[in-house]
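assembly run, all chains below
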Amino acid sequence: GAVVSQHPSRVICKSGTSVKIECRSLDFQATTMFWYRQFPKKSLMLMATSNEGSKATYEQGVEKDKFLINHASLTLSTLTVTSAHPEDSSFYICSASLVGELFFGEGSRLTVL
Amino acid sequence: AQTVTQSQPEMSVQEAETVTLSCTYDTSESDYYLFWYKQPPSRQMILVIRQEAYKQQNATENRFSVNFQKAAKSFSLKISDSQLGDAAMYFCAYRGHHAGNNRKLIWGLGTSLAVNP
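ok done. output:
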């Protein structure tokens, strides 16, 4: 099956710094990737839809200047959390769409001190 | 707008028994997909089963099967012969058929399933 790899799986950073999370489709080309945020024991909250070669579409309430998404190639999308604050600590998950089905990365646990 | 409702925040089942997780949805579309995803403690989302709305036959995947009632907009998941490894959060999700890859999933709030030895 299709494999999506997310890196890093865990990251700890200081408040005010920026963190980049990568999402790669390993064995297929993904024109569309989705970025989610998940709070403990909660459902997935869609942050943005990332399309290769174009600007991401952000969901209402998501700060596009804080959560920078780049989808520069058909196999890589990145999420950069800029000027991170403790309230940005969360579990971030990416997924890639292939023939109408979503394949998920392993997720990235971000802790901002 | 489409919505997905999972009315059971938590469920438990004895090992080797059968459990059914409920999911209802609301949509005005006639063509769509429904999914059940499993999220174990590792947090990796795993597709359990998928159902196309135009198919009347209920999808089955080994010990997992669904009861898809299109008129009632119900999509329950039955897990037979429950195993300890089935313990996880289970999410029901909806996706419209049209507009290709850009159509996002609509998620339920999830059901936490515990399997008792």
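The mean pLDDT of chain B is 93.

The radius of gyration of chain B is 14 Å.

not gonna interpret more than that til we talk
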